[in-house]
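# nightly structure sweep
# worker-07 picked up a monomer target from the shared queue
# config: single-sequence mode, recycle default, output format = structure tokens
# input follows
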Amino acid sequence: MLINMLPRIRITPQRLARTLVPGSRSESQGFRFGHCRNSERFISTQSDAGTFTLLPTRGLLEIKGKDSSKFLQGLITNQMLKIENGGGGFLAAFLSPKGRVMYDVFIHPSNLTTEGADPSFLIECDARALPELHKHIARFVLRSKVKMTGVTEAFDVYSVLDDASAQSTTPLASDNAAVMERLGKMNASIGMLDNRAGNMLGYRAIVPKGRRLSLPESYLQGTLEDYHVRRILLGVPEGMDDFIAGMSLPLECNLDYMNGVDFRKGCYVGQELTIRTYHKGITRKRVMPVQYFRPEEPVPETMRFIKGDSHVVPSQSELFPVKTADTLNVATSTASARPVRASGKTGSNVGNIGLALVKLDQVSEGNIFEVMDREGATVRVKAFFPSWWPKQTADTE
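# output follows
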């Protein structure tokens, strides 16, 4: 079955509702998340008031020039025609010729109002990847009339999550005029509706360094940890810890689910493998949200972030099913001389939650996984299906 051909499930405002459960263990010790399928509710990492969070770990590269849109069109997974005339930005990725993800990015039109100005776009990425991304793009410039400039020091990147009442009127990303109107009210001319998980990640707003966003006084300033906790609970990969340069596959990293790939556009670097995988309709692994817990603790039924409960698991650590891990001696089963193959690898994490690339069939079977932390101790891992995924994913891929 061509799972990737199935229509997206629209996230309605009602599904965005957040409910505080007074007196629960989560209220005092952590946050429960109800956007995983076998969970009924969650404690948000923010209150029902709106929040804004500065993202200092993001880097910015400006691509400017007469050929900038055409140039980027041949390098990224998304469709530049959507944004070449300005408006809100989108998620995309630069791929290797073999179809592996090199860099996950947001591309934002600069929305210059100067008459006759050359088209200009800001590429937002993990700041750690910016130097290599610059080199990667420079290889393809040749005779294209484009100029690249690092502009990280000139702008601030914010994530803005509206309050509960405003979320009920959040526009679709395709309603460009409504998105830009909302950004304009924030005093931001550059940004986008972050629709990687429905509308549950709010907006991204880019403003000149030091400029304050224009927001109601009720909006609270969030921390970088708040942002990553929400992102991880939703199962949204981002940056170098989740997209491993030259190794990760676009669909395994959910770029199709997160609106980061346009399967109807023409040729671009790395397109062939991506399109072939899409039309085969088989993606056996995907990045999913996971919760870490100790072997002596009960298996969690709902995904919950517990502040201060830290399991330091390095990114790209191998995961093994418990039934396999129990028989492991280093990397080899005692029952066989053949090496045991890992079921997946870990990605970014905060405290007791994280992301991991795992085999979907093993998650559907309810398997629990094991991994080693930095101290050499065994940590168990439970994966959850995000509710914003197509519901057929667990049954068909």
